[in-house]
């Protein structure tokens, strides 16, 4: 990111490695819709000459003197969120906010990201995980952000066995929210996307969606209420839409006592709006949760186990594969324009 609305390649020296850090060269990387919000929508404020990207796996080229469990040459999974594990926020259970709100999100936010020939990882022992030999590097990039974020949606909402769940938005994050809710025991699962990107509906079905709703075909809340005989749903997972309408639609379709799990990255200039009546004039026991994906090594190891053991097949989401570092620019362009055949492009470096 050269500046707002501007991307290109820049030269920078290798980052310095502190005693607990590592330097990693990427094996594969993928662009995120969040990179697009940052560059083209001013979602977190302007950035200049900042290297983008937070989805990668790689090979370690240098480790700090205090790193215990990783060495040069290890192939590693890299989470998008790399907390400082010794901060008090981490001890309070919110490591993603270690050092301040969202400060665990370092790559392509408050420091250079992974679209670099070498990138810096803080707290290597706390944040890296060994790349299992069964997982192909292109597939491993889905473990940085798409799997942890999508699965977090149903953790936030507390999906339980037999719940009827609506997932609003079925890009790669929403598709992983679908899969996560199914793994958490959802009964009926209503996926909201659009026929403009039919491939997302196809993959949502493979991940376990039972009903598909096109948000262009009429108000999505009306459609879901009709599908459920006016009863609505137990949980809503939000991975798309906007601040002005989507939360109101979600409140409207929730049963009393239901919960929303939002992982959509909203624009900091907007207000989240929902009608008080849809929230039971303040007394519905409907709750709204939103969260950044948890990062760190243990989380990476556990999510990798879901892939190794066939519970999640991330390869269904990889729609384009490029070879060569220079193609990173093409994938950012694809993510920006989102042609109908794109879910997630990947670059093998
Ligand atoms: P995509 O753009 O690929 O997917 C968005 C989905 O929402 C699509 O299915 C889209 O349909 C649908 N959609 C768009 N507008 C509406 C609407 N008005 N009502 C209902 N559905 C709508 O994004 P990603 O899956 O890549 O990412 C989703 C979000 O998650 C992004 O905001 C991203 O920045 C964020 N994110 C959050 C993270 C976290 O830690 N919390 C981490 C990573 C990403 P269609 O394409 O057909 O228009
Ligand atoms: Zn992301």
TrEMBL record:
Q: Where is the Alcohol dehydrogenase-like N-terminal domain?
A: 18-123
Which InterPro entries does UniProt cross-reference here? ADH-like_C (IPR013149), ADH-like_N (IPR013154), ADH_Zn_CS (IPR002328), GroES-like_sf (IPR011032), NAD(P)-bd_dom_sf (IPR036291)
Which CDD domains does the UniProt record give? NADP_ADH
Q: Which Gene3D superfamilies match?
A: Medium-chain alcohol dehydrogenases, catalytic domain (3.90.180.10), NAD(P)-binding Rossmann-like Domain (3.40.50.720)
- Return any one Pfam family short name: ADH_N
* Alphabetical keyword list: Metal-binding, Oxidoreductase, Zinc
Q: Does the keyword Disulfide bond apply?
A: no
Give an example GO molecular function: zinc ion binding
List membrane-spanning regions: none
Necessary cofactors: Zn(2+)
Record-annotated Alcohol dehydrogenase-like C-terminal domain positions: 172-306
In the record, the note on similarity to other proteins reads: Belongs to the zinc-containing alcohol dehydrogenase family.
Would you tell me the protein name for this molecule?
Alcohol dehydrogenase
Organism ancestry: Bacteria, Bacillati, Bacillota, Bacilli, Lactobacillales
